[in-house]
Design brief:
Elements: H1 7-41, E1 58-64, E2 70-75, E3 81-87, E4 92-99, E5 109-113, E6 121-124, E7 127-131, E8 136-140, E9 153-156, E10 170-172, E11 177-182, E12 212-217, E13 230-234, E14 241-245, E15 250-255, H2 261-264, H3 271-276, E16 280-285, E17 296-299, E18 304-307, E19 329-331, E20 337-342, E21 356-361, E22 374-379, E23 381-382, E24 385-386, E25 391-394, E26 413-418, E27 424-428, E28 434-439, H4 442-447
Antiparallel strand pairs: 1-28, 2-3, 3-4, 4-5, 6-7, 7-8, 8-9, 10-11, 11-12, 12-13, 14-15, 15-16, 16-19, 17-18, 20-21, 21-22, 22-25, 23-24, 26-27, 27-28
Length: 448
């Protein structure tokens, strides 16, 4: 551009320059919206939304299927997808890398690497983090290759071996720390596990090494629990739905509540109460706090924590439970929260900004009643706290029939992630299906 040096042009030049800046800002906004619209308009939703029921303006399509026992997933800036595989009963596992090489919106390239079973997988700082049953690994990625470098670093290892709640879920904060869930090894820390009427151990020895969240630095390798890192929070029976909110700079998790209140304490709880108690809890996780397990559980009907029967409770007593934090949200019992992601993209309407999408795997132990909870739900957030009632966002996973047993469910959502254009991705653990959900309002749909 020609440089104008005369004084009489300085004011005009400044005025023109300001107009250019304003125009470029406007164009940037339009360019971003155009990119988002292009990314979503190239994607053809299924006529039946892949079997899902969604809010008005949203549609979905199946982008991959029959992948096996897939769990959580992560999506990179190119739209490539990494999914964790885990079936400990059959000893199957690994990581799948999925790519849409012809850009038609459907996966056409599938590569598998490592055979280690794992639950959690995330992208951070150009690396792929993957959790096995007893370690957190870091794979280095390059922009040119779908597959990472073959030899990962071990960030943390030697987590205790356990049969129950062996999967490790984690979240990564804005300061390069990783928060790892280590689930309980029992239902309620009884003296005799799963024996009716057996009292609870007090104090519960599990809380030393299990039923809590540990924090480690990603700047170090070969760390060992108990020697490195810190015991960040305790009294959380198990959480696979854990995420760091990048805007509010806080850690949140959804706890899997305890089971078998009726089976273990039939004189206190009816079968119906056993199916309806306790709540699955959305918690704000803070340093050095205990969240009550195994001594207490949250009763959604009473809207309070009550003392567990193993510790002298009768379904109404509060006792020591008044000392533990309240949940932000109490979900129905046995829904099985298996993943959570905060939505900080802009494709979806403003209502969804900064809120949480939670994948509920569905119940398995509500007999003799039907199983429920095979859904993706949404929780609105404002200024770091819940700002409205939770709502069902995606339904229809279980199919049209009655679900008396978990095996009756056609699909069970188990992972949820946000793509670079703001699309929401959901995985299923039954048939290995992946959905992509986009927002397309009536005006955009008419231009398609």
């Amino acid at each position: 551009m020609t440089r104008i040096v005369r004084k009489k042009f300085k004011r005009i030049s400044l005025w023109v320059f300001c107009l250019i800046i304003i125009a470029s800002c406007d164009n940037s906004s339009e360019h971003y919206e155009a990119e988002t619209e292009t990314a979503t308009s190239l994607f053809e939703c299924d006529a039946d939304n892949g079997g899902l029921t969604l809010p008005s303006g949203f549609c979905a399509g199946v982008i991959a299927d029959s992948l096996g026992f897939i769990r959580h997933l992560a999506v990179n800036e190119r739209g490539d997808i990494y999914v964790a595989l885990r079936n400990t009963r059959l000893g199957l596992g690994g990581i799948m890398a999925l790519s849409d090489s012809d850009e038609d919106g459907r996966i056409d390239q599938i590569e598998k690497f490592t055979d280690i079973p794992g639950l959690e997988i995330q992208l951070h700082g150009g690396s792929l983090y993957f959790a096995s049953e007893n370690a957190i690994f870091r794979y280095e990625l390059t922009n040119e290759s779908l597959l990472p470098e073959p030899s990962p670093e071990k960030v943390v290892g030697d987590f205790p071996e356990q049969d129950l709640h062996g999967g490790k879920a984690f979240a990564i904060d804005n300061m390069n720390n990783i928060y790892v869930n280590v689930g309980s090894i029992s239902n309620a820390c009884q003296e005799e596990e799963q024996v009716a009427g057996s009292p609870g151990l007090d104090p519960c020895p599990e809380l030393d090494n299990h039923a809590g969240i540990w924090r480690f630095s990603l700047d170090r390798v070969n760390q060992v629990p108990g020697q490195d890192g810190e015991h960040y929070a305790i009294g959380i029976r198990n959480t696979y739905a854990i995420d760091w909110h990048p805007v509010y700079d806080k850690l949140y998790a959804v706890q899997h509540g305890r089971d078998q209140l009726h089976e273990l304490w039939p004189d206190i709880y009816s079968a119906e109460q056993g199916a309806q108690l306790p709540a699955e809890e959305l918690l704000e996780i803070n340093d050095s706090l205990s969240y009550g397990w195994p001594y207490c559980y949250y009763d959604k009907r009473l809207e309070k924590r009550v003392l567990a029967p193993e510790y002298g409770g009768n379904g109404m007593l509060i006792g020591r439970c008044e000392n533990y934090p309240e949940p932000l949200v109490a979900f129905p019992a046995h829904y099985g929260p298996n993943d959570m992601v905060f939505y900080t993209a802009t494709q979806f309407p403003r209502h969804y900004q900064n809120g949480a999408f939670i994948a509920f795997h569905g119940s398995y132990d509500r007999g003799p009643f039907e199983q429920v909870g095979y859904q993706i739900v949404f929780v609105p957030f404002t200024n770091g706290t819940v700002s409205g009632n939770w709502e069902v966002f995606a339904d229809g996973f279980a199919g049209d029939g009655h679900v008396r047993f978990p095996e009756d469910a056609e699909y069970r959502p188990t992972g949820v992630a946000v793509g670079p254009d703001g699309s929401l991705y959901v995985t299923d653990s039954v048939q290995g299906r992946v959905w992509r959900i986009i927002y397309r309002d009536s005006e955009a749909a008419s231009r398609k």
